């Protein structure tokens, strides 16, 4: 078939002598771009769905925090029964320490598992261990926050009447225990503030973006070289 175009009777709105050349039907099919098999291998540049858990800021904040629950466990178990003015302070220290250590361990495991994922596709189904650990981490975090504020009530409630030296009085509480609980409250506030800052940074300036982008560009260049 030698002719690739045909004339039609459409009239130009100004020039009546003008007619149009319309491609044949088979030319429309040939003009439609066909997807290349190489385009399927181009990685997505969209951000990961779990930026916080996959960011290096998470283990940094957890490692900064881990010393607090360890101290609470050690001090709480060391001074059991030595705070009659507010016996729940000992329980607050021990429970905070145990759940704080669990929070750190679970957070590190989640971070390692997410970093092992082959891709960050938002439709990707995470393994069962992550579907269990992530809600557990969130639950423990919320419990620690609520228990932290409850501890402030336990400690500050007896601040004006606590006795730190005479163990024979009912208002007695060992000074190492009470002072440690008092100081830890303010340290926790600083750590919470730092964790919030790191959490914001994990969304605003993820530390791995440059590496991911450079790897993406290298893969795209290698794909382009393969096609050529």
Helices and strands, with pairings:
Blueprint (H helix, E strand, L loop, with lengths): L4 E3 L13 E3 L1 H7 L19 H4 L2 H9 L1 H12 L9 H28 L12 H29 L18 H30 L4 H19 L1
Antiparallel strand pairs: 1-2
Helix pairs in contact: 3-5, 3-7, 4-5, 4-7, 5-6, 6-7
Short description:
This protein has 228 residues and is mainly α.
Could you walk me through the main structural features you see in this protein, from its secondary elements to its overall organization?
The structure is a single chain. The chain is mostly helical. It folds into 2 domains: 5-33, no CATH class; 51-205, no CATH class. Helices cover 61% and strands 3% of the residues. It contains 8 helices and 2 strands. The protein has helices spanning 25-31, 51-54, 57-65, 67-78, 88-115, 128-156, 175-204, 209-227; strands at residues 5-7, 21-23. A two-stranded antiparallel sheet has the order 1-2. Helix 4 (67-78) packs antiparallel against helix 5, helix 5 packs antiparallel against helix 6 (128-156) and helix 6 packs across helix 7. Residues 26-30 and 37-49 have low confidence and may be disordered.
């Amino acid at each position: 078939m030698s002719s690739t175009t045909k004339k039609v009777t459409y009239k130009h709105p100004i020039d009546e002598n003008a007619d149009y050349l319309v491609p044949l039907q088979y030319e429309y099919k040939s003009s439609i771009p066909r997807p290349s098999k190489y385009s399927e291998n181009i990685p997505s540049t969209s951000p990961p769905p779990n930026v916080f858990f996959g960011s290096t800021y998470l283990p940094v904040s957890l490692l900064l925090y881990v010393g607090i629950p360890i101290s609470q466990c050690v001090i709480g178990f060391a001074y059991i029964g030595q705070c009659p003015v507010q016996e729940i302070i000992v329980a607050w220290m021990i429970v905070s320490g145990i759940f704080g250590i669990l929070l750190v361990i679970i957070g590190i495991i989640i971070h390692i598992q997410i970093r092992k994922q082959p891709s960050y596709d938002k439709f990707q189904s995470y393994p069962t261990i992550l579907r269990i650990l992530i809600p557990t981490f969130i639950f423990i975090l919320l419990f620690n926050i609520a228990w932290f504020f409850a501890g402030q009530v336990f400690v500050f409630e007896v601040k004006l009447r606590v006795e730190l030296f005479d163990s024979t009085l009912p208002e007695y509480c060992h000074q190492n225990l009470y002072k440690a609980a008092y100081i830890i409250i303010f340290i926790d506030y600083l750590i919470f503030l730092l964790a919030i800052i790191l959490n914001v940074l994990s969304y605003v300036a993820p530390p791995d973006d440059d590496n991911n982008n450079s790897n993406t560009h290298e893969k795209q260049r290698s794909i382009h070289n393969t096609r050529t």
